[in-house]
Structures
1.
Amino acid sequence: MALIELDEVSRTFVIRTKAGRLRRERREVRAVDRLSFTVGAGECVGYIGPNGAGKSTTVKMLTGILVPSSGRLRVAGVDPARERSRLARRIGVVFGQRTTLWWDLPLRDSYELARRLYRIEPRRFAANLDRCVELLQLGELLDTPVRQLSLGQRMRGDLAAALLHDPEVLYLDEPTIGLDVVSKVRVREFLREVNAAGTTVLLTTHDLTDIEQLCGRVMVIDHGRVVYDGSLPGLHALGGSERTLVVDLVREGAPIEVTGARVVRVEGARQWLAFPAARSAAPIVAAVAERYPLVDLSVREPVIEDVIARMYQGAVIG
Ligand SMILES: Nc1ncnc2c1ncn2[C@@H]1O[C@H](COP(=O)(O)OP(=O)(O)OP(=O)(O)O)[C@@H](O)[C@H]1O
């Protein structure tokens, strides 16, 4: 069953700019351009694209904040713009850069407000809160005012707030932005559990590791249109994008030689090895670790803009 359905959805903005002392120019920006796609119940879909591609505009239309200029849009069978409050009970939204929590109140009070706002039945509320507190390790934070929380703690608090009313669909906009490695891991683990329990997830991010670890399907949007819909390895394979293994050796040495990767940069005891992003890093990491004395290793994902640029090149060449 499709939970999210867009059929030829467009959204234009009119921008008026000054052109001379008195004259104003009127320009139309088509942020979303005859966009069609469906997302099935239980899917976790990565929604990625360069800056200004139309991602936020899509998500705003899916929540009912923005009205489409044309086309048909349904979320859980509801027209978001027409029945925004009815839809609000069925969706959860988390924006990494903003919080829905009350700044001066303890976390617990924001949750209590959500309970009243969504009229969540008390037993269900208690069970959901317990589950979120356990999975997100919020126990010790419940009585802390939100303004005193770290970014990672606040994000975990926001995730719980978005899920207390058991939404069928969860929209996430950059949920790991600015978080340290440990917090990122915790947030991703939680999202995996939420999705495994049946919640449909639409995830907007600039961090390809989020997509790699959570989404079986990725949609790339550019200039308001879907330009790729498939798996992440498939996207990498299209343009031949590469990941980088950063290796800190115990001491400086000759460039590392392992099958499947090539050294692209050397700086003192640090070496950078590029390898196809569609392939697993595991055999390369194992080969390097076996043959070279190491201090540290890390894998860097390519940036989304590069992957998309390469995808276009691949599509032209291929
Ligand atoms: N309220 C608005 N008024 C005018 N133009 C807008 C408005 N909102 C978005 N746009 C324009 O629509 C286009 C798509 O913007 P949108 O914010 O949806 O992109 P995005 O993919 O979310 O980008 P980012 O990754 O930078 O958040 C951009 O050209 C943007 O300038």
Note: The mean pLDDT is 92.
2.
Amino acid sequence: MTSDVEEPGAAPPAPPAQAEAVFGDSLPKARRYAELLADDGVRRGLIGPREVPRLWERHLINCAVVEELIPEGAEVVDIGSGAGLPGLVLGMMRPDIRMVLLEPLLRRTVFLDEAVEILELSNVVVRRGRAEEAHGQLLTDFVTARAVAPLPRLAGWALPLLRKGGSLLALKGEQAEAELAAGREDVSQMRPSVSDVIRVGRGKVDPATTVVRVTVTSDGGPPASAGSQKARGGKKKRGRKR
Ligand SMILES: C[S@@+](CC[C@H](N)C(=O)[O-])C[C@H]1O[C@@H](n2cnc3c(N)ncnc32)[C@H](O)[C@@H]1O
């Protein structure tokens, strides 16, 4: 009987035609990363085996197209990187940016450290921890995040990490507009900001990647902990999983 579920150690699918245009010179690194995800990533439970056949469109290219929102030389913190999406992809495409992959779970940071070394990404560092623990320690131009938390909780974690004029770029699905409409007031109470929804990668990935962008318009700003339970992270602290 055949199955569409890939076994650990399976080769990733070949990159689709548009991968060359999206990744350019970094395509060899993207191919190597796809191999790592399909093999070690699945074996170690970092991505599901069902993701392997759709690694390129749904994961690598979906994340890569966000690069157009990041200006040259920017500092970026990717919170909740997991297996490296989107932070590792953006770091490999853009040697001009400085990328911090912020991830609390040890087995994920071990994989990320190995991937950074194998892909020789001297502009990417891995830091183990929760975003809210980095408040007052990290200050950056952009925070990226995909599939980490609902917008108000994510903003509570991300906005204190941003310099004035910096942006949270939250990769969201089809419900992005509704999520922003529901969360906009909470978010602007945390720190003065302007928010919009942008679609990037039209013609390169279908559906285009939907990004909720929250740009902070004030210096510093009160720490998120001055606000609501949502801003503090919304959940009681639990022991750190490994
Ligand atoms: C569903 S995974 C998404 C991983 C990756 N961004 C992706 O799109 O494949 C959510 C990740 O967020 C991390 N995470 C959860 N709470 C966090 C926090 N407070 N700060 C930073 N990362 C967190 C988890 O450990 C996990 O790796």
Note: The longest strand covers residues 162-172.
3.
Amino acid sequence: MLNIAFISHDRKKDEMVNFVIAYEYVFQGHTLYSTGTTGSRIMAATSLDIHRFQSGPLGGDQQIGALVAENEMDLIIFLRDPLMAQPHEPDIIALLRLCDVQGIPVATNIATAELLVRALERGDFAWRELTDKYKPGVDEA
Ligand SMILES: O=C(CO)COP(=O)(O)O
């Protein structure tokens, strides 16, 4: 069972909901997290149970980032809006930076999300379920 987070900006929420509906059978059985509104939208459209953090502008990206910092998050689907400025841009950058620090797979557009969910379905993420000492991290820091 992996820890997976869903995050989407407003103009990407329909895309996110349709994506999760299509792959609900893959996501069920994992532990799911989201920012506030994204999670509400997904739960209204699926039977998935999702732990919702704050809405992004209120700190949700940072709450998910805290789990990433602990290397507790295994996969993030973050459908960003590349054409609209966000008031919490620093939080978004910080979350993506932490994903790079820890080596966490993160999809920021639907094409990458499709590839990662198919990899998840195929079992390619099994390495994330191994003990901490096999996870890439910041041990050299
Ligand atoms: O703003 C977000 C991510 O940066 C998403 O927050 P919501 O899911 O609450 O809309």
Note: Residues 89-102 form the longest helix (14 residues).
4.
Amino acid sequence: MAEVIGERDGILREELLSFRHFVVETHSLIQKEKNRKFYFCRLPYQNVSHIKEYAGYIRDRFESFVVIGIGGSSLGARMLFESLTETNHNLKKKPKIFFLENVDPEKFKSVLEQIDIKNTCFNVVTKSGSTVETIANFSVILSMLKKELGDNYRENLVFTTDPEKGFLRKLGNQEKIKMFDVPPLVGGRFSVLSPVGLLPAAVAGIDIEELLAGAKKMDLVCSIEEHVEHNPAYLIALSHYIANMRRGKTISVMMPYSEKLSSFVDWYRQLWAESLGKDGLGQTPVKAIGTVDQHSQIQLYREGIRDKIITFLHIEKSDVDYKIPEELPEDISYLSGHSLHEILSKELLGTKAALIKSKVPNITISIDRISSYNIGMLIYLYELATGFSGYLYKINPFDQPAVEEGKNFTYALMGREGYQEKLEEFKELYKEKYKIEVQ
Ligand SMILES: O=P(O)(O)OC[C@H]1O[C@](O)(CO)[C@@H](O)[C@@H]1O
């Protein structure tokens, strides 16, 4: 706040409160939109027994589980897996879980080397049913499965896709493959609490009901409280908006003091970037990890260009911890008897103090521990903050029109039917701009 870091960089309480009427109006619009644009708000209330049941079957039957998807069709599931299972899950537990996102042959090879394809369930996740990377990875796997298993290949597949539209749904219907629905009103980056994220999470042994309970709790907090200072989602949205539009903080750094929350930031990056980056507006989300990036980025954050607002994620208690011995040489005896997690927390406090001294705006979100419930709360918090931000920036946070152009050129280059005109446009562009003739 301005009272701590001054008015040039900090937010004035009056400034926040001046949005009071806007917040009340937007709050009631959001409540009305919960069966339409804000349908993701309904996901915490769904019945998940069918997901749990099928996940149970997969857990009993397969040694490995591979999610084939990209963007909103994988980041959420990966975030749940990496934050809520043991760090070395794949070394200790079954089924081992993998993610095939990119079309990078090296990555593909490394996954293949760690699985026995006959004992692996592949979850192909794509809302549109046609994303190039997903369909390409899937096609290679499909031919391998057919070679290994003949007609029984179907048993090793489960699709998560639109309930009616798209190539994958058509194929699933034809081939009688087990399928789960992506709710049509929920876009990829808001879909982690649907089967997109819940099936892989349940297969990994995560308590998905607790996850939804946390999201419900956050929905409750944010539904009854329309006062800007008491609604955490609106507070996050407004403080970022004011920092961006009135203080020039065009970059939002998210810095968890926890390696396990690294992919929470990957998920947040898509949510914030793809939802709000429109009409020349938005804020660039950046990942930093405490304490590691203290030794890499903090010089810039404190004394470099003043374009950042920083969110720290603090975990109060760690499920594991290691104590530093009492008997240490005098030079380092200040560490005696302390623990690793204690140092992590103190370094966060130290970094925060240093940023405050340099008048860098920052927010701290504390959770008592990394649990399904708390991650459910955080997911819902950021999804709602993003949806609310759409009203602040006066943009539609639920589409991604600018992503399509690159996809269309790729289709054209890959020779997809109906994209001949796009190919001509591509060739023309290269000729004109780069003086390169493309064949
Ligand atoms: O689920 P799909 O349709 O494969 O899309 C994957 C991702 O691709 C995007 O459309 C961007 O290209 C994201 O919005 C989406 O999450």
Note: The longest helix spans residues 372-393.
